[in-house]
Design brief:
mainly beta, 3 helices, five-stranded antiparallel β-sheet, 25 strands
Length: about 350
């Protein structure tokens, strides 16, 4: 269950042990995260209705053997790999392509924008509906990137035991109080203060950020979710920190904005749903009794594919933004990746 904390609590963790880095790498290596479909499943839903089935409307063989991943984009998808990215429309036609060289590309999309970054290194490429926009070279090694609908990019970086979250405009300039009113340029955290940041989520308007931290206190594993507001509401609070919640003995591998004002905290055994027009408010929590295999979400729905058991096949669960279940369906075939 979520336990609300204040900013001082988040800053005062202290006395974390050096073994965190090894623990973190081991944990992250085994976590199941949301991944988007190659041969995907398109789940079409309407408001105020519950569906008990899904429809496969198109399949396509992935020819690229070095492809790192796929994301939904502009009704179609983006394929990205070590040497470039391709945007494909829903009818299979080419929208744009771009080339680069990255060792471990990661990506995010929002509206017309795509950001691709080299995890563990310092290169970022930004694309829009016309193709390449700009590249950014960061000061520190990249862990995660998120992009907003107007092209603002949030970058989680690390150097030693210190983590940095910095915002950039699409042209590569740093978002800061000096060039935009009410916006903070950087959040700095230390392992000894807040633990390791595992994931970040940026709102569609680029003004709100959620961070999942993993730490140990008094010998216990603790996940802490920090909520930050870069707009007017966050101007008068320390570090733009407007709320926080703790989860003891639970890992939170992923956090996500569902639209601009709703946040889903994906725990290893369920979820917590928050409203965040400006500050966070807990709406609903649920614990699942099966192992989560894949996480799925978009601006209207969120859910999982649960692993099969000896007595039951895989199961798709989908909820609306109020936490109401709208789909509970068995999945009787194997899949690679999922697109919602």
């Amino acid at each position: 269950m979520a336990k609300e904390i204040d900013g001082q609590t988040l800053r005062d963790y202290g006395n974390r042990k050096k073994r965190y880095r090894k623990i973190r790498k081991s944990i992250i290596g085994t976590l199941l995260v949301a991944i988007i479909a190659v041969v995907g499943i398109y789940l079409y839903l309407l408001y105020n209705k519950s569906y008990e089935s899904y429809e496969v409307i198109k399949t396509e063989e992935a020819l690229e053997t070095d492809a790192s991943g796929y994301l939904g984009y502009a009704g179609g998808m983006v394929k990205y790999s070590r040497d470039g990215a391709v945007a494909i429309s829903k009818d299979g036609s080419l929208l744009w392509n771009g080339s680069y060289e990255m060792m471990d590309p990661i990506a995010d999309t929002c509206g017309k924008y795509v950001v691709i970054a080299d995890r563990g290194n310092k290169l970022i490429h930004i694309f829009n509906e016309k193709g390449f926009v700009s590249s950014i070279t960061t000061l520190y090694d990249i862990m995660k990137v998120e992009i907003a609908s107007q092209g603002v990019v949030a970058v989680l970086m690390e150097e030693g035991d210190t983590s940095y979250i910095k915002l950039y405009y699409e042209d590569g300039t740093v978002v800061s109080d000096s060039n935009e009113d009410g916006v903070l340029s950087e959040i700095i955290t230390n392992v000894g203060d807040a633990g390791y940041p595992i994931d970040i989520a940026l709102s569609d308007d680029g003004k709100k950020l959620v961070v999942s931290f993993l730490s140990f206190t008094t010998g216990k594993l603790v996940s802490t979710i920090g909520f930050y507001n870069f707009g007017e509401v966050g101007q008068n609070v320390i570090d733009r920190f407007v709320g926080g919640f703790e989860f003891e003995d639970i890992i939170v591998p992923e956090v996500a904005f569902l639209g601009n004002d709703t946040v889903c905290v994906y725990k290893e055994n369920g979820y917590s749903l928050f409203s965040m027009p400006e500050k966070p408010e807990l709406l609903k929590e649920e614990t699942l009794d099966k192992k989560i295999q894949s996480i799925i979400y978009n601006e209207k729905y969120f859910g999982w594919i649960l692993d099969e058991t000896d007595s039951a096949p895989k199961q798709i669960l989908l909820y609306d933004l109020a936490g109401k279940k709208v789909l509970d369906q068995s999945l009787d075939f194997e899949y690679d990746k999922v697109l919602l």
